[in-house]
């Protein structure tokens, strides 16, 4: 008698089957695994403003290079927040959703800056931006400084013409 064959049905990618044997990852699980493979930095929310800037720059650079859309960025970012930062985001996210706000990357970024950069810090950086001169900086250094400080001058950052000047 020939050996008995077992046929295993493999569900489609992203299946939402409740079958305990279904171990096919969803699309979001695959994205999360890829994102985490780059070892993105974490944020506890107890760091200082300079550390927040560095963290946000690193995260945004990674998300840009992976070309993730807003919805994915917002979902993935929660996996890199811990302690105070995680509590802040869960509370903020819930409040935004209750108001019916669609949480885009721009909304997350605005909320992040408001929470983790004190008003005095933002004002100082805004003034530094307003007074920025090339001086002894080479063009690459000047552009890097301009781009870094631009986030603290939202009235300029929202105006493409002003940024180009």
What do you see in this structure?
This protein has 165 residues and is mainly alpha-helical. Among the domains are: 46-117, no CATH class; 119-151, no CATH class. The protein contains nine helices and no strands. It has helices at residues 27-37, 49-65, 70-77, 83-98, 105-116, 119-130, 139-150, 154-157, 160-164. Mean pLDDT is 82; it is low at 7-13 and 159-165.
Question: What is this entry, summarized?
Answer:
This protein is an all-alpha fold and 165 residues long. It has helices spanning 27-37, 49-65, 70-77, 83-98, 105-116, 119-130, 139-150, 154-157, 160-164.
Number of helices: 9
Low-confidence stretches: 7-13, 159-165
| Portion in strands | under 5%
* Run of helices and strands: HHHHHHHHH
Give the C-alpha Rg: 22 Å
- Cα end-to-end separation: 83 Å
Oligomer state equals single chain
Per DSSP E runs of 2 or more residues, the count of β-strands stands at 0
Give the overall form.
globular
- What's the rounded overall pLDDT mean? 82
The largest sheet, given as strand count, sense and whether it forms a barrel, is: none
The portion of residues assigned to helices is: 55-70%
Look at the helices and sheets and give the structural class: mainly alpha
């Amino acid at each position: 008698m020939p050996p008995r064959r077992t046929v295993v049905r493999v569900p489609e990618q992203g299946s939402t089957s409740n079958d305990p044997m279904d171990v096919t990852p969803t699309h979001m699980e695959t994205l999360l695994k890829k994102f985490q493979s780059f070892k993105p930095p974490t944020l506890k929310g107890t760091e200082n403003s300079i550390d927040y800037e560095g963290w946000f720059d690193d995260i945004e650079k990674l998300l840009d290079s992976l070309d993730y859309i807003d919805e994915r960025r917002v979902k993935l970012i929660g996996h890199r927040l811990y302690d105070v930062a995680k509590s802040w985001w869960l509370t903020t996210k819930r409040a935004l959703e209750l108001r019916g706000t669609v949480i885009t990357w721009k909304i997350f970024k605005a909320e992040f800056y408001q929470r983790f950069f004190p008003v005095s810090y933002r004002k100082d950086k805004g003034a530094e931006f307003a007074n920025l001169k090339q001086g002894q900086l080479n063009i690459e250094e000047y552009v890097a400084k301009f781009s870094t400080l631009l986030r603290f001058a939202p009235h300029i950052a929202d105006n493409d013409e002003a940024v180009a000047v």
